[in-house]
Amino acid sequence: MPPEPDDFGSASDQRRVTALMSRLSDEDFVRHEPPPGLWDSLSERIASYERSTVEDMQPPRVASLASRRRGPGRSTQVLLAAAALVLVIATGALVVRQLGSSTPQSVATADLLQLEPLGRTSASARLISEDGTSRLVIDAKNMPPAPEGQSYELWLIDSEVTDPRSLGVVTGSEQVTVPASIDPKTHPIVDISLEPNDGDSGHSGHSLMRGTLS
Amino acid sequence: MEELYREHGSLVYSLCRRTLGPERAADTTQEVFFAAWKSRERYKPDSGSLAGWLVGIARFKIIDLYRVEKRNPLAPESAQAVDVGVESATVEETAQRMMIADALQSLPERSRRLVEHSFFDDLTHSQIAERYGLPLGTVKSDIRRGLEKLRRHLEGFDHATRA
């Protein structure tokens, strides 16, 4: 028998609680304690976020990567890509000329953890330093082709996860040059995302794998 | 924030664990509390309980995760076969039931028994008072306070937004 009418603020509240109460099961009362360390991890994340906010002396630039999906349109993107290609070729030529004088050194690595269940797909990253330039080497296993109309994109992101910098589209194992404008020390998070081919150069917010260079 | 986590972490984690499995429960729990912290100014005590508000945020995080997996070509086939609409409804329902269970568990033993009697047994308040040998006013006020707690949980749940 449902409670007497004056027990509730409204009849709809009463019907709702009555329905929920009638479907309660023992499992609804089962509680699990969060794993130890979860609070420490959370409080550190909050502290880090607060620090970045204070340093910027302005509101956080983004709350989530999804909100960064604003950027140049397709034509601008093509121009930027062309400019980047010219820069890469020029830089590559310079590097080729200077090769032979230095040994590549692995300065940091990261295992990329799945942010979603990805089956047997796995990936790791190595940061290679050589002659003052950095390369990011991605070793990916069991990575299927991206679905039609979408691409995988490689990013370096700062520790506060507010400033993703694209290293371009990837299809699996790749080596990419890290532009001098991106410092892996301030952007140590390696991220592989799924991006719709919609002309938007911002991060989609749909990260598949992520790890921190150390 | 720590007090909030200590008090309600188990409820949020248990909901995440039940709907997402143990592997993703911890990360999602952290996302829920981080989102709650960032949007803490949106919480109004007049608009329901904190527990309800947190569970409301958790519900959105879990449903969003289902949707992401549905779009994800790398997800296991089982995740891609999920009917997000059905799963979302299940999450909504489960979250609210666990929240009601939480409210009941937090009531003093006597209040909890009286509330349960008022729902599950064919007894009026007067009959409950007679059965327990309590004054009718005590039974009525106990039940009213208990149901008020349930109602505030639901209000908090309804006022939660996608943080």
Biggest protein-protein interface? A-B, 49 and 55 residues
Total number of helices of chain B: 8
The CATH topology of the domain at 65-212 in chain A is Immunoglobulin-like
Q: What general form of chain B does the structure show? A: elongated
Number of strands of chain B: 0
Into which percentage range does the β-strand content of chain A fall?
Answer: 25-35%
Structural class of chain A, by secondary structure, is alpha+beta
Unreliable stretches of chain B (pLDDT < 50, length at least 5) are: none
Helix/strand/pairing category of chain B? mainly alpha
Could you tell me the mean pLDDT of chain A?
75
Count of helical segments of chain A?
Answer: 3
Mean pLDDT of chain B: 84
Helix content of chain A: 25-40%
Query: What proportion of the residues of chain B is helical, as a percent range?
Result: over 70%
> For the report, how would you describe the main beta sheet of chain A?
8 strands, antiparallel
- Low-pLDDT residue intervals, each spanning 5 or more residues of chain A: 56-64, 70-76, 91-101
What is the CATH architecture assignment of the domain at 65-212 in chain A?
A: Sandwich
Q: Tell me the radius of gyration of chain A.
A: 24 Å
